[in-house]
């Protein structure tokens, strides 16, 4: 049996210098030479199974010495190396290039250039292995061999297969000019002086007899292949950016490119494209991660948010299942497709999360705010209502008005909020509380879900009475929340309530999510903000997950003192929602500085060491990169600094830019909005917008349907007036 969902350790790390290529839900991890060595986490993964666990190139039995790697697209790379010098020679004369293209299979073009003055003759061998390891086991470093493994080959084709639990998985490796044996492809190569030799090797998975089509045929121009066509379409659909800061420009473009690479689709629903959580270990649809990413990317491509909502709705719970923690109306935590996952976990879908369900409702509300296709949004309303039924029944099992979680078997996740490691929730002394646990951010999401459902009632059903009822539910929750979670002696909100309804009193970043949804009364906002930006919480690279004064604090931990970019983007959005512009800008600039220091790409998380302690951010060793909500964070932070918050049903667009001088003038062209496109220009914090629908009010202040944050009367620390639409 494979491991259950509650693995408590850290995933096996991807070593420094490793190269990860991704396309859809497939990915490949190799070393800098392009080799995939057995025994570790390297491999080619398709549908959560490692279909290639060994892929090592040898020239006359010797490995190639790596020189450099070029990866212009996330699905392809060129590995440049040299063969070992021949005996008696100081330098090698053979340059070896490996041009790799990854999709639901792989193509590798092998190119050898002879830079010498004599003809070169040698044997080039590719060593091949496939353990068909389950992704869960690979990332935990515990692959178990199971089933009946077979190898067959003929003159030009090697076939490796495993049959287990009634399913057959195969991988076919072929090359027209190779001599094939049980685990090798060998090429007898002769290259004239200054000459070039090349060949192509194809790897195609076969799942229960269904052959994966070749994504990169050698006779087809790259620009018309499926992966490149999808990338070109994404780049055409997303806004074009112009600003004078080249570093920030690179950060934002890297974010957009990485998000495109993390898109996944369902062949049964080709018009509904969703987003995976992150590479390498989470190339699958995740409820919480995918939803938050979708919400942060509405400004550049609403189709991603719509597709994510539709994909999750198709897998919404319909029955009670203790093993998978499925319950009617519940939105999944994670979807997996490997045979091993199905056998070990009772199904390919796991539902153990407390937050994905209210976040799903918030996402559908945001789709309405941004003017997404009304027919497709309306089709989600039954799923929204089933989600709210889950919130008020299974989510609030004890009827106290709060959503709690407690796993139903020992196979599930102990913690079911976004800090889901086994020790991710602790009190101020460092003690792990007994459940069920009601998290502060989950109650905030429920508040946001009620406000979203009220908006949907108005916008799509023209039902003012229903809207009023949902707003009343939100107001009652806000009162209960304030009474139960506010800690007056400490001046912050509890991280949660334990099973005895006692506050979990640690100072943590989670309460910033309460600002994001607006559940915090206006008179509390600045005190909360000051704690989040205090030296104990703010590292200079972002807000820590846990304050340095807490018992469980460890800057090198996963959830107890680290800095997560997506967490900071949500906090910044919450601060801006309450008009706390200086606080929000400080968070935004810290995270964008981090991205710039790390080469333009934000990882899943980084260590929480203070900026004064080390001159650069300290990476967390097992962080995913690219990772969806980290990639989305710079885009969300730009939205926050621009002060953009639309509410199309109420004909309002908040627009109140406060940008660093170095990024102005700024121009964004082709922003998707309300079925059309909008252009935005900002100079000296004055915005000009063109292409808006008629009758839209533009200016500072959020829509009243967001709830009372005290920001509509004007931000406490001042904001700029946006220009009227041109």
Automatic annotation (TrEMBL):
Which InterPro entries does the record cross-reference, listed alphabetically?
6-hairpin_glycosidase_sf, 6hp_glycosidase-like_sf, GDE_N_bis, MGH1-like_GH
- Taking every annotated instance into account, which residue ranges of this chain make up the domain Mannosylglycerate hydrolase MGH1-like glycoside hydrolase? 325-597
Tell me the leader sequence span.
none
Kindly name one Pfam family recorded for this protein.
GDE_N_bis
Residues of the Putative glycogen debranching enzyme N-terminal domain: 21-201
Which GO BP terms apply? carbohydrate metabolic process
Q: In which domain of life is the source organism classified?
A: Bacteria
Q: Where is this region: Disordered?
A: 707-726
Name the record gives this protein? Amylo-alpha-1,6-glucosidase
UniProt source species: Georgenia thermotolerans
